[in-house]
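INSTRUCTION: Work out how this chain folds

Token vocabulary: learned, describes local backbone geometry

RECORD BEGINS BELOW THIS LINE
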Amino acid sequence: MKKTICIILTLLFTSFAALNAAEASQRPNILYIFTDDQSYRSVSAYEGAHDWVKTPNIDALAESGMRFKTCYTGASCQMSRSMMLTGRLQHAIKSFDISNYPSCDYDPKIQPFWPANFRKHGYKTACIGKWHLGADVGHGRDWDYSVIWDRMGKKNGHAYYYNTQVRYNGGERVPLGGYSTDRYTELAVNYIQNKSKEDEKPWFLWLCYGGVHGPYTEADRHKEMYADAPPTDIPSDIFGPRPTKPKHLVNYTKWKKTKDGKPKDFDKRVKKYNRAVGALDEGVGKLIEALKKSGQLDNTLVVYTSDQGFAWGQHGCSAKWMGYDANIAAPLIFSQPGRIKPNQLCAEPVNGVDIVQTFHSIAGIKPVMKLHGRDMAPLLKDPSAKLKEPMLLTHTARLYGEKFLEAIKQGIFVGQKTKPAYLMMRDGQYKYIRHMKKDTIEELYDLDKDPEELNNLAVNPECRSLLKKLREKAAVEIRKKDGEFIDFLPKPKVQ
């Protein structure tokens, strides 16, 4: 009898294991390419890119799949990455404390990162490149393999391109050597090649480049790139005034004016920034070639985006943070042969937590806690589809979760002048921004008629009913995403 039971159990176990292996084989690998501070305007496939910008490999990736017109991955570096690893909007990320920035303390038991769950469900997980979430890099919990630049230490924290120190599999920091963009690409190519020789388990690789973050250091081979390009067009509102904007932004500018009235070193800085994109573009080409040669391309979902965008003169900025497309809109490309049709453009606005939700959907994995994203799978099948809920983004400066909520309840201003705290909603053609600052007007833009966001309709009496409608809708939607704070925000100033 015991022998019979043992045989039955063995058969059941074998069948279960075979089933799991079959399910795993149907799940795609996921190569998630994540750059730093890269505006959609730095990719030549995007409308709004300068005519002289050339990114042939990123363009080829876009042609092979679906390019999203507008993606708000996040609003700033660390905050975007925390949203990306939790699948939750910043206001509801639990246990995070960045009072000792750039360090970050968090409790993975209270706020788990979803790659750990992917590991439990059969994925091999890896992280290569920039971390920016403190000393706990999650090796052995979130990652099976990791080569991480953790930004800790004064010297290492600014070593975006050279003299970078990394931690292999959670060990002590050692020199990476060479130009970091190239080295991260090499490490990722090696990982892809090695995976083709291992078991049938699918893999997830989060490849986090440090480029194109300041100081925008190009590779030596790209120093003459764009040398013959015409001067860069200067945004019309670089110096203001912007009479319809919130008071602190009316005359805001980060640019010094020369004697001839032009922004100092504008063309030089923009060209340098775009030259640093050159190595990123080459890296994409090498990664796709590695997938092809290893026979893994057809079963690999390739996603390309950035932690957020970066403004070059628009609204007076040379930064991210603010809720305008110029500041925070990033490129986003999804590609997988056979799953996603080539040469597609999707106009539906999406964000970073949507990407996380979609990874779970495609992998068929149930999240361990509530995610705030929308499943983009219908868009990947039909780019003309519309998601049921509007796109939401919260930027709560350097406060998260319970600390942010408590500050709002006490009436404490959580943002900074140039790093504002706000709620932003995209609903069709309209963008609504509500600032978390007392006596500050709201912002409302019709992006079909005003894509540069120069005319704030919130100050137009004829748009008050529309403003009220969107304000109420934003409140309803944010409550669905653990947004208790909405009931304690200071009332917006009415013009």
The chain has two domains: 26-382, 393-488. Residues 330 and 366 are 27 Å apart (CA to CA). The first strand starts at residue 29 and ends at 35.
